[in-house]
Amino acid sequence: MKWGVIGTGNMGEILIDAWMSSNVIEQEQLFIINRTINKAYTIQERYPGIRVCEDIHELIEHVDIIFICVKPLEIHPLLVDIYHYLRKDHCIVSITSPYSVSRLESLVPCQVARMIPSITSRSLSGITLITFGNQISKEMKGYLLQSSRLYSSAQLIEDNVTRMASDIACCGPAFFGFLAEQFIKTASEETQISEEIASDLTEKMFIGFGKLLEDGHYTLPQLIEKVCVKGGVTGEGIKALEGSLGGLFHELIHATHDKYREDIEKISKQMLDG
């Protein structure tokens, strides 16, 4: 099958890099387009076999699966533009959470899926969150699942947990990266360790931490228990965290869900106005 990517921004580019690294698709089978076309040609410099299209309708005509990698409010006008070029056997794949598959199905005359990636796909790991539309064929479901497993772990989810699943699997690297960055800065402010050394130690710790979990040596509770020797330094640190966290993660979840609902409302208004 031939794939198309509309939008080669951050996530579009990460997906392309993941696909090329995992050989999930041959370069010659991938067609890409971007509003700023030079960004697409920059990607083609790394992967010369990729086809860059300067006309979106040309891309639609050449491909079977169309990955929509643009901002949520750009999706509706895009789908209106390409509607009459879509075949029934096409499959539209959205990578953004505010568009449910049922809403997408109401806008196009073809198969629909939502596949929300993570930056971790760049290292051929992490999770792709997948929800299929009602009209998608069994064969297309199997093909998309098999393909996504070559560069990530595929996790089927229901629409009602989309935002929370995305917070964990997709936003999580940024959230925990931010916490780690604050830890590093505070360490250099409070002690004589440099930010450079603290950063290097933290990065290596994260790599080892991930491998412990990946290899199945410990669960998260077991890992905490093993490091927290009774009466030791780590235990005192955990107490400090427990006393300071308060409602931090409640606030985080409320913030992301409020933004999610706001995006859905904007999309609904946009569709009504359109």
Automatic annotation (TrEMBL):
PROSITE patterns documented for this protein: P5CR
Domain Pyrroline-5-carboxylate reductase dimerisation: 163-262
Entry superkingdom: Bacteria
InterPro entries linked: 6-PGluconate_DH-like_C_sf (IPR008927), NAD(P)-bd_dom_sf (IPR036291), P5C_Rdtase_cat_N (IPR028939), P5CR-like_CS (IPR053790), P5CR_dimer (IPR029036), Pyrroline-COOH_reductase (IPR000304)
Record-annotated Pyrroline-5-carboxylate reductase catalytic N-terminal domain positions: 4-97
Family the UniProt entry places it in: Belongs to the pyrroline-5-carboxylate reductase family.
NCBIfam families linked: PRK07680.1
Name of this chain's protein: Competence protein ComER
